[in-house]
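Entry for 4'-deoxy-4'-aminopyridoxal-5'-phosphate complex. Fields follow.
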Amino acid sequence: MDSARQPAEIGFGLQAFARPPGAPRLPRIARGEGVWLIDTEGNRYLDASSGPVASNLGHGHPRILAAMEAQARKAVFAYPSQFESEANLEFAERLGRLAGPGLDRAFIVSGGSEAVESAIKFARQHAVVIGQGSRWKVIGRQPGYHGNTLGALAVSGDEHAHEIFGPMMRAVPRVPAPLSYRLPPNHTVESHARACAAALEEAILREGPETVLAFIMEPVGGLATGALVAPDSYYEAVRQICTRHGIKLIFDEVMSGAGRTGRFLAADHWPSARPDIAVLAKGLSAGYAPLGAALVSAEMVGTVAAAGGFMHGFTYNAHVMGCAVGAAVLREVEEADLAGNSARMGALLRQRLEALAAHNPLLGDVRGLGLLLAVELVADQNSRQMIPLEKVAPSRVQQIALRHGLALYCRRTSRGAYGDWLMLSPPLTITAEEVGILATRLGAVLDDYANELRSEGVL
Ligand code: PMP
């Protein structure tokens, strides 16, 4: 492992058992209140990213805690092949109604990777049942992220993870994501996105359309691309390409779903590019329980059910406590109009970030949708040059941020191949005043980081 990519930077929870010697101590969590996290020494940190874009309702939400307590006093677990549960019925009903036609049946699991595995296995079994057993390849995007189990990782575009785990996975084609900040020569954002959509069709034709099962993408990117949003025409193009070749379009909405981008699903921003399958997790339970779901149509479920049912399942499918939390979260998302608040506060935060970019030399790009935002850090705003690999340890920015009372989620992609960014994705419950505090503190963090880089001769 090269020194610039220490285990502590890899993120995704490895820190707990793989922190390098000498890594700075993390604060120890004592409690949470709304957008604030408080450590055992009494320091308060504004949660600027909802952890890994999960805590959509903030911390210690009284209605969710009350729902958890009420459910705990009734039943926490009952196996879904033996018992129905009210929690499961209410959660599935709310989820189906919010996700809307064509995505109104949920296979409920305990996280994003499981939900992606379930989605691609369901698509495969459906293809087999309808006599299209030659279809198995799932095309993904480079870069892209869909989870860390081997099936979900196989369809993810992360060169570093593939170097390590590639031999254990079945290789599938990947096509470029329409990155918008550093474009190939002679391209505009639009023309590059058109070329990326064309690359999907070329890959399908090269592989043989009858072998391709699905195309999976994050409609608004997460950590892999730093909240990448493509031009509208891209979504329509990939939808048409998938339809033309009988391929299922899967939107991974693990980060973007449940109100995060200003609509319940990010897919709702592009009604003419509706996916066949959507995958949710994270905000679905807002971090109050491990929960995820693969959403498909009633028609697909009916077809597979008539042929004997989905040959797949986990002990914690439709977990009763998980479903009770999910139902309470969705009730709150609807009643408090959290998607609407995400759109409003997202616009405000974006303005503040753009204002910061005007005076801080490190801020190269601000992008995203609703409260799924990211800022890209650069050594030079004009050339868009990246900060040298050894100077940009995300843990370093995270550490400066802690000193300013800000909890940040940072990423340098695959050994710096794509860039460096900070996710700015606070809880959807954030107020305008708290957005102001977040932006002011972030400005101070970036000023400190810029001063450090100046003293090191980088800026
Ligand atoms: N897909 C996306 C887009 C994600 O952001 C994540 C988590 N970061 C996953 C899938 C995997 O979810 P989990 O970590 O819950 O397995």
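NOTE: The longest strand covers residues 363-369.
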